[in-house]
Amino acid sequence: MTIAADFTGLWVTDDGHIRHELLANGRYVEARGTRERAYEGRYEITGTHIEYWDDTGFTADGDFVGGILYHAGMVLRRR
């Protein structure tokens, strides 16, 4: 069984441009380039699937596979 705590921490694209910080309280902060708090919201993880709800109403999802987060066409690795 996988629990959400297994995925908390910082996830980053290889070029470092996109950075997702998954917080233990079910919130996330996404940085893009020099914008440190470009997006913020909540997330839920079921198994290896993640659902995002941005505070502005935007929704997205992704999947963790083999230590990689695949999200909206991006590949993020844990740091």
Automatic annotation (TrEMBL):
InterPro entries: Atu4866-like_sf, Uncharacterised_Atu4866. Gene3D superfamilies: Uncharacterised protein Atu4866, PF11512. Pfam families: Atu4866. It comes from the Bacteria. This is Uncharacterized protein.
